[in-house]
Amino acid sequence: MAVVLVVVGEAVSADELRGLRAWLVGEDELRGRVRLRERPPPQGVLGPVVDAALVEAVTPPVAGALAAALVAWLRSRVNRFRLEVHTDRGGRMVLDVRQIKELDPRAVEELIDGLAATITGQGDQRAGEPAGGDPPNPGERPSLPADPGAGG
Hints:
Blueprint: E1 3-8, H1 14-25, E2 34-39, E3 49-55, H2 60-76, E4 82-87, E5 92-96, H3 97-101, H4 105-120
Antiparallel strand pairs: 1-3, 1-4, 2-3, 4-5
Helix pairs in contact: 2-4
């Protein structure tokens, strides 16, 4: 099972994804499973563009560790953005930094459980925003919002 993580929001940079990767590989259960996905740069830009983090070989026990690590990372963020979590089984959950920071401990625990269930394909996605559209295949680039700075 694989999971694609996409950071969405105004003024969000690839640094958020790099920070997310660094956070996740700090967890023993996730070490060796997380990499950044790059796409070719737009014309006139040097170097590839990081557009997602991929977590591979996710088993049910690893899904719990991943869900807990994602929620902890989001609660530590200062910037405002959303994290889209897509699974190769069609699961999708959108997590908003502001909303997660306002949760009490019981709600955080419920969110972690719901996210883990979504990752393993057993969730009903009520813990996040409703699913919409087709989730990206981990081997394909997800449909991302247009880059406001791309001029087009």
